[in-house]
UniProtKB/TrEMBL annotation:
Name this protein carries in UniProt: Phosphoribosylformylglycinamidine cyclo-ligase
Organism listed in the record: Curtobacterium luteum
PurM-like C-terminal domain location: 174-343
Catalysis: reaction(s): 2-formamido-N(1)-(5-O-phospho-beta-D-ribosyl)acetamidine + ATP = 5-amino-1-(5-phospho-beta-D-ribosyl)imidazole + ADP + phosphate + H(+)
Pathway as given in its UniProt record: Purine metabolism; IMP biosynthesis via de novo pathway; 5-amino-1-(5-phospho-D-ribosyl)imidazole from N(2)-formyl-N(1)-(5-phospho-D-ribosyl)glycinamide: step 2/2
Gene Ontology MF: a single term: phosphoribosylamine-glycine ligase activity
Top-level taxon in the UniProt lineage: Bacteria
Length: 367
């Protein structure tokens, strides 16, 4: 018997095999709150523990990884994209002080290649396990004719919870607070359209090797460095030092100043000292290829800062030490001021609809 759907380009058997291949990785993220297992129409999560909260607030976030997937497709390496997705989604949850509960994912592709889909899902599952997030469901959709046979895109959504009284944000930030930068692992998942444009313009192939990226490491492999995950060490810090951290910012789309400005109160300002860190080689190499100063990319790339923590002045040293001990290199980059300042030339003020504080970068980057 013929299968009209298969003749149209949709292979349901391949989809079923992909689910089987990813099943164990997904199940490994489940805890006692997950009910129903894998494969249901909806994921189920027992939230009866919320009755113990005084005033629980649910936090939610959704995102993708952008055109970074094009590099994964180009070099046929798909085992890190999933961690990028978790980083983009779950690390937005912790910004408000929330603990992630569960996540769902969506993979759209031109053709289901079971092992490829399983690699992507396994990366998502590893990221979920590392952040204490249950992967309770997802969807793999085959779109022949809309996407090329080897094209795909990924997206996800997560939900977390925070006690209302423990919510972080601009409302807690005070004059004299210290802005602590927390190191990124690289580009993370932002600015890849610019990256791809630079490489294309210079005729650089993803299989090429550059000495700045290390022996035996191709350009594509260097660019696929997975997004650093911040949730678990930040939650540990919040638990161990209650009240020390006033706000957090995830440095993603929009760059350095704009993302920090979003978590500062109106009327406050800070100057971020570029000399306090040296951008990673990947940023320097790309900027040099583009004949562009690093300063011109600050609104696109994170330049080595994946998160900011705005902390009480007296707690800054302890916060930096605690984050460093957890594997997150951190350093002070500036001090919040609420003193009146009429001249805000060069400052970013709020972003993405948020009327926040004012931020500008000053000085020159360390060598």
């Amino acid at each position: 018997m013929t299968n009209p759907y298969a003749e149209a380009g949709v292979d349901t058997a391949a989809g079923d095999l992909a689910v089987e291949l990813m099943k164990s990785a997904v199940t490994a993220t489940h805890n006692a709150s997950v009910t129903g297992g894998v494969g249901g129409f909806a994921g189920l999560y027992d939230v009866s523990f919320l009755k113990d909260f005084e005033h629980p607030l649910l936090a939610t976030s959704t995102d993708g990884v952008g055109t970074k997937v094009a590099i994964a497709q180009a070099i046929d390496k798909h085992d890190t994209i999933g961690q990028d997705l978790v980083g983009m989604v779950v690390d937005d949850i912790v910004v408000v002080g929330a603990r992630p509960l569960f996540m769902t994912d969506y993979i759209a592709c031109g053709r289901v290649v079971p092992n490829r889909i399983a690699d992507i899902a396994a990366g998502i599952a590893r990221g979920c396990s590392a952040t204490g997030t249950a992967l309770v469901g997802g969807e793999t959709a085959e779109h022949p004719g809309l996407l090329g046979p080897d094209d795909y895109d990924v997206a996800g959504a997560a939900t977390g919870v925070v006690e209302a009284g423990a919510q972080l944000g601009a409302h807690l930030v005070e004059d004299g607070d210290v802005v602590v930068a927390i190191a990124s692992s690289g580009l993370h998942s932002n600015g890849y359209s610019l990256v791809r444009h630079i490489l294309s313009t210079r005729g650089v192939q993803y299989t090429d090797q550059l000495p700045e990226f290390g022996a035996g490491v191709s350009v594509g492999e260097a660019l696929l460095e997975p997004t650093r995950l911040y949730t678990t060490p930040l939650l540990s810090l919040l638990s161990a030092r209650p009240g020390a951290v006033h706000s957090l910012s995830h440095v993603t789309g929009g760059g350095i100043a704009a993302n920090l400005a979003r978590v500062l109160p109106v009327g406050s300002w800070v100057e971020v000292d570029r000399s306090s860190w040296s951008p990673l080689p990947v940023f320097r190499v790309l900027a040099e290829m583009a004949s562009t100063p690093l300063e011109d990319t600050e609104g696109t790339w994170n330049l080595g800062i994946g998160m900011f923590a705005v902390v009480a002045a007296g707690a800054a040293s302890d916060v930096i030490a605690s984050l460093g001990a957890a594997g997150l290199p951190s350093w002070a980059v500036g001090t919040i001021s609420t003193a009146a300042r009429e001249d805000l030339t060069g400052f970013e003020q709020g972003a993405k609809g948020v009327d926040g504080g004012a931020v500008r970068l000053v000085g020159s980057y360390a060598a």
